[in-house]
Amino acid sequence: xxxxxxxxxxxxxxxxxxxxxxxxxxxxxxxxxxxxxxxxxxxxxxxxxxxxxxxxxxxxxxxxxxxxxxxxxxxxxxxxxxxxxxxxxxxxxxxxxxxxxxxxxxxxxxxxxxxxxxxxxxxxxxxxxxxxxxxxxxxxxxxxxxxxxxxxxxxxxxxxxxxxxxxxxxxxxxxxxxxxxxxxxxxxxxxxxxxxxxxxxxxxxxxxxxxxxxxxxxxxxxxxxxxxxxxxxxxxxxxxxxxxxxxxxxxxxxxxxxxxxxxxxxxxxxxxxxxxxxxxxxxxxxxxxxxxxxxxxxxxxxxxxxxxxxxxxxxxxxxx
Length: 320
Description:
Elements: H1 5-10, H2 18-27, H3 30-44, H4 63-80, H5 89-99, H6 107-120, H7 129-136, H8 139-151, H9 167-177, H10 188-191, H11 193-200, H12 205-215, E1 222-230, E2 239-242, H13 247-258, E3 262-270, E4 277-285, H14 287-296, H15 298-306
Antiparallel strand pairs: 1-2, 1-4, 3-4
């Protein structure tokens, strides 16, 4: 049987591995498999390299998933318009292979793969490392990273809003903060150190300190993990408040940090007499994390590009 015209032009084939070939051939008629191949070929032709892909270069697990991801990527390129470039095989082949591993029910992960593949065909393309990072994230972990970007909250269940009885404390703290630093400032926590110093020097620093951490520090791009008051002199003052006691969230945060998508920042100050130490444990999206998000989400990319740039602090991850 001769090859179809589209097969000859691209030279791409779908190979699900030696162990699965017999099963695939038994379940999918040759003409059906050919239609799947033609569909994929038609979709990726504009963004594949001119020399095409050899049959032994790509090994897919879920053809239906990959075709849907490729269709969404092509749709994004058509919507954005402009010029797009062939994706190097070094990027395209592993992207197609790893994207085909996603579940057909996980539309959000398919959207991220589609955005990443579309980003690879635009402008300067993408780093091949992004493919490995996205492939190592679960859907929950990717959701968590995006939630931190938008709200600075690591869980939908956690509520940072103070109760009515605490409004006096919160109003005083906010009067100390003054103008809020812009969202996604790369050193947002450090920008607020003057406020922390004023709180520590106040008449009721311990109570105010925890309110500050819970209600002021969380913001888009960063979140507060824990706050600690400790003293070698007054041990009764020793206290620690953790924002998240869910082990699953802690594990997801650890994974994001291990992939260099989050970075840790610790702010520590002592009272004037050095008897009490106040410490805040923060996590913020890393420069690489902003770059990654911008390539996997069109909404986030457009939001980053529209943000004002802090003076002397180029916004992280804003590369086109």
